[in-house]
Amino acid sequence: MEGGRSAAVPASSSLYIYLTHWQVYPHLYWNHSLLAVLASLAVGIAYWMVATRVMAKLSSVRRRPRRKAGAAALQRGGTG
User: Fold this and answer.
1) Is the model's pLDDT at 1 over the cut of 50?
2) Which residues cross the membrane (predicted)?
3) How far apart are CA 11 and CA 60, in angstroms?
């Protein structure tokens, strides 16, 4: 099952790899072509991980039900 998981990460992050490789690859290609490919993969996967976490955090904040001000005051022991 480990082989499936290791293939899933580049597959899931392929759009991010494609978008970021234009910023990484040209700077390293002429001197270190293998390093250029590996760095492009690493930057794209890292960007995908950060973007996925930020989007998950934002969606959980949006789903959280809002309480009315009066309900919050009553929970604290005050009056509405």
Assistant:
1) no
2) 34-56
3) 25
Position 42 scores a pLDDT of 93
Rounded distance, CA 36 to CA 30, Å?
A: 9
Residue (of 64, 66, 46, 42) closest to 54 by Cα position:
46
For the chain, the structural domain boundaries read 2-76
Buried b (16+ CB within 10 A) or exposed e, 40-70: bbebbbebbeeeeeeeeeeeeeeeeeeeeee
